[in-house]
Amino acid sequence: MSRPIPLSSVRTNRFVAVIYRVGILRCVAVPEEIGAWLKQDGARTLPVVATVAGQISRTTLLPAAGGSYRLFLNRAMRKAAGADAGDPIGISLRLDRASREMPVPADFAAALRHAPDARSYFTRATTALRREVLRYIEQARAPATRARRIKDCVRILDQRSRKRKRRRA
User: Would you give the distance in Å from CA 72 to the centre of its chain?
Assistant: First the structure.
């Protein structure tokens, strides 16, 4: 369903693929040779910068059956292309080597220093989980709300760390 443009020494790969549905989500199949070219040392997911009709998005290619990858299209990308399920769409992909880490705010870092189990769990968590925790804290408007969220996040991280330790024992 997709027609890749031959790979070159350029780091951006362009292809045309037909949008299909997976439940309520829309995605395209990434040609196998592009997925293989982008694949990093045994990584299951691939961080990429995808461009669709001028709309740029930092996203992740997810594994599909048979070693291929899927690119899920967000609403902004589909809207920019004026396309939906069943429509062909032109896509540019390049490996995203930029860090996806968000800086840890000083108040949250201070709270983690007083909870070593929570800090350990947070440090070992996936980038996506750390980012979600930090976004949750950063979205608080009132200082009291922020303080409560920090306290709640530290408590939950601590509980998860303790649960993990019990399972290992």
Answer: 11
Q: pTM here? A: 0.64
pLDDT of 117 > 50? The answer is: yes
Residue 124: give the domain boundaries.
106-168
Number of Cβ within 10 Å of residue 99's Cβ equals 8
Write out the two tokens for 21: 């549905």
**C-beta of residue 82 within 8 angstroms of C-beta of residue 89:** no
Instruction: Compute the average pLDDT of residues 125-139.
Output: 93
CA nearest neighbour of 72 among 32, 31, 20: 20
Return the higher-pLDDT residue of 13 and 39: 13
Cβ pair 13, 34 in contact under 8 A: yes
Residue ranges of alpha helices (H) inside 8-140 are 32-38, 75-81, 106-113, 116-124, 127-138
Q: Which of 95, 122, 141 is the last residue of a domain?
A: 95
Q: Are 101 and 17 in contact (CB under 8 A)?
A: no
**Which two structure tokens, joined as six digits, stand for 23?**
């439940």
pLDDT score, position 40: 66
Task: Name the maximum alpha-carbon separation found in the chain.
Answer: 55
